[in-house]
User: Fold this.
Amino acid sequence: MAMSPKLELRQRQQLTMTPQLRQAIGMLGMTSEELGALLEEEVGKNPLLAFDGPVRRHAPAQQPDGFPDGIETIADEPSLRERLYRQIQMSERDAALAGVACALVDELNENGFLATPVPELLARLKVGAPVLEQAVRILQGCEPTGIGARDLRECLMLQLVESGRMTPEVSALLDNLDLLAHGNYPALARRLGITLAELEAAIAILHSTNPRPAAGFDIMSVHTVVPEIIVRRDGNRGWLVELNPEAVPRVLIDETYAVALNDRDSRDYIAENRTRARFVVRALDRRARTVLQVAQAVVRHQFRFFDDGIAGLRPLTLADIAEETGLHEATVSRVTRGKYLECPRGNFEMRFFFLRSTGTGNGTDQPTTAVVKERIRQLVASETGSRVYSDEKIRKILEEEGVDIARRTVAKYREGMGIPSSSRRRRIRT
Assistant:
């Protein structure tokens, strides 16, 4: 059968993304620094567009009360200093005590040791010895393990206890590091009352530790970011969420140039730039309203964090915020990328507040994996020589606190954090 060509007319609808719409969407995903650069470019080439007031570049955010200078800075590649600040902020509810611990970070030497004499620290920080000791323990609870140690022995001990390798032989060896340096192993074995094989095994364990926990980190690298959202106390009623007016430059339409060139030949040029200027102003306003809308929804979901710290975090997804705000999930993703929120606990990228659930239980208010791990760490840290919690005991405590979790999940989280079993912890503590 022969086929003959024919002409058909079909009608279909297609959404075409204009360059303006594409740029408006792109502005949602820009950081304040990227947006500032874009606006400078727009103002430079559009005579009808002007900055509303002076342009501030990279101004530091307001410092949270109780924290030392520099706490407001967050790096794209966080330095060791910033990593420690973040860990302290998330683990310690007492702002004053966290401030002392953060101040100790600035006292660390290049190896990560806290070598400043205690009397000097007490005088400089204006705190008592018990508070200083608590702050040291908070710092030493951070990663990498061994950070904040007062000397080499304490540094190695912290790592060995954390990994569950503190045997009696290793403990005795730690007390005789000066003799180990001489290399006379037979004499050292006799001194410790152990065999040469036991001594060699203890030395091998000691060699597996890191005597310089700060090695490989840039302690003081700083990259300042400006938070676009500020969260502060609203009396006793809750938390107030507002835009930071210093974060993004404001622009307006300036008709001075249009009036000066009020002639027929310039009308098209003026009209084109006026249209472009109006688009930029509208897009900037729409971006600000969208960022604020998403931030308010995030704070409503995670309000417990601002009171209780990391223990107050709850599961939250982009889809949850999209459903509440009526925005598309992709829009929420763009808005939260690279945007920082400042609160009394410090600066946090908005993505920080999106966490998955533990995946256990039937309730919708199950805490996040990070919160459960932190609670397990706190329980282990509170143990004494006569009271060591088994995985089953930890499970029961968590169950009483409203966390439905299996014993094997407790064990998995514990092992993932490098915490030894209860039997090994009991041997270490007795």
Confidence is low (pLDDT under 50) at residues 57-76, 219-223, 360-364. Strands lie at 49-51, 229-233, 239-243, 251-253, 340-343, 346-349.
